[in-house]
Write a structure and sequence with these properties.
With 380 residues, this protein is an alpha/beta fold. Helix content is 32%, strand content 25%. Strands 5-6-4-14-15-16-13-17 form an eight-stranded mixed beta sheet. A six-stranded mixed beta sheet has the order 8-2-1-12-19-18. α1 packs parallel to α6. The longest helix has 24 residues.
Length: 380
């Protein structure tokens, strides 16, 4: 079977890798450079700490379990030069800095523990042992040993390198324009195939409409600050308790919550913002100021640390906050893998595996029903 994946971000790359591992001949195309859009504007979060019990958490848990094995297999297949992704299973720390947010944080963690997440309530003193530069205004803290970090572009390009090594084809700079039986239409001519995966991220709704099967996927803007390189100053992925509420919110207005972490290169990444403003990619100074102000409240040492740059991007948002994974019953041969919003890095491994299982008739490792395209509010 021939498959074409439209979109060379981390979700498209994971689907392509899983399909090629299952024996399909895979072509990956993107209208821009590989892994240059949503994936390049992310932080590399591989989180279980920010998801309430339900289908997305189950997908995140499956992805977290599978990703280390997947990376080990790719390292053996590709060698060290092509498989370095800066994998850091460093754990996460969530803190409440006000008494009114302590109770909800601890209740949320208890619900997650009931769903199988390692969420360890720790004292404020223990939180500062884990993060010595953390504010002393800690009302409650939860340690998540399974939270991790990966360099998102390296992860995507490693997955794509495996596809290419197995005989697949990578076509950057090619735009998909539509679909008809047995072939994908592009601005470089048709590509024969039996299966097309819509992995266009925030632009998935646009491509789906071109194929005659519109879906509701909207862009949600996010911005990240990057400091100048420092010695290792933040040991975990640390965020405040408001982050979970911001992730789950469907509000279009600006929402910010603090996420702070160090990278192997020494920079500190500061997020996060969420805003539905279409595809407006202008950097808004008031958003940057809000991120900086909240980060300093969590880590006072950041006051006076220079910000080297800021970057932003669009995440694929669905109204029910769940990804869309699987076949589209309206158009034979059309499949979707999109709608992961800011969790795509952490959900990629399980998403690719699930899509390949469904495409090849193998038993799915997670329940695919919640992610079907024909659920209310998604199939337009």
């Amino acid at each position: 079977m021939d498959a074409v994946v439209v979109g060379a971000g981390v979700i498209g790359a994971a689907c392509a890798e899983a399909l090629s591992a299952a024996g399909l001949r895979v072509t990956v195309l993107d209208r821009g450079p590989l892994a240059s859009a949503t994936t390049a504007s992310g932080e590399g979060n591989v989180l279980v700490s920010d998801k309430e019990p339900g289908p997305e958490l189950a997908l995140a848990q499956a992805s977290r379990r599978w990703l280390p094995d997947l990376l080990a297999g790719l390292a053996e297949e590709l060698g060290p030069r092509l498989s370095e992704v800066e994998w850091q299973p460093k754990g996460g720390l969530v803190v409440a800095t006000a008494e009114e947010s302590a109770g909800p944080l601890l209740e949320f963690a208890a619900e997650q523990r009931a769903a199988g997440v390692r969420a360890d309530r720790i004292s404020p003193e223990r939180a500062r042992e884990l993060e010595p530069l953390l504010t002393d205004r800690v009302a409650a803290a939860v340690h998540y040993p399974d939270d991790a970090q990966v360099q998102p572009v390296l992860l995507a390009t490693t997955l794509l390198a495996a596809v290419e090594q197995r005989g697949g084809q990578l076509l950057p700079g090619v735009t998909a324009t539509g679909l008809r039986p047995g072939e994908l239409l592009t601005d470089r001519g048709p590509i024969p195939c039996e299966l097309v995966v819509n992995a266009c991220g925030p632009w998935a709704g646009e491509f789906a409409a071109r194929c005659g099967a519109p879906i509701t996927v909207l862009p949600r803007r996010g911005v990240v600050l990057v400091t100048a390189p420092l010695p290792e100053v933040v040991r975990h992925k640390v965020y405040d308790a408001d982050y979970v509420g911001a992730v789950a919110s469907g509000d279009a207005d600006l929402q910010t919550s603090t996420v702070v972490e160090s990278t192997p290169g020494g920079t500190v990444l500061i997020g996060s913002s969420r805003q539905r403003i279409g595809f407006d990619d202008s950097l808004q100074v008031h958003v940057l100021r809000e991120l900086a102000r909240k980060a300093i409240a969590l880590f006072p040492f950041l006051h006076g640390v220079p910000v080297m740059r800021a970057y932003g991007g669009f995440r694929p948002y669905t109204p029910d906050h769940l990804p869309v994974i699987g076949p589209d019953p309206r158009v034979p041969g059309l499949w979707h893998a999109t709608g992961h919003e800011g969790a795509g890095i952490g959900l990629a491994a399980a998403t690719g595996r699930l899509l390949a299982e469904l495409a090849t008739g193998r038993p799915p490792h997670v329940d695919p029903i919640p992610f079907r395209v024909d659920r209310p509010g998604v199939a337009a």
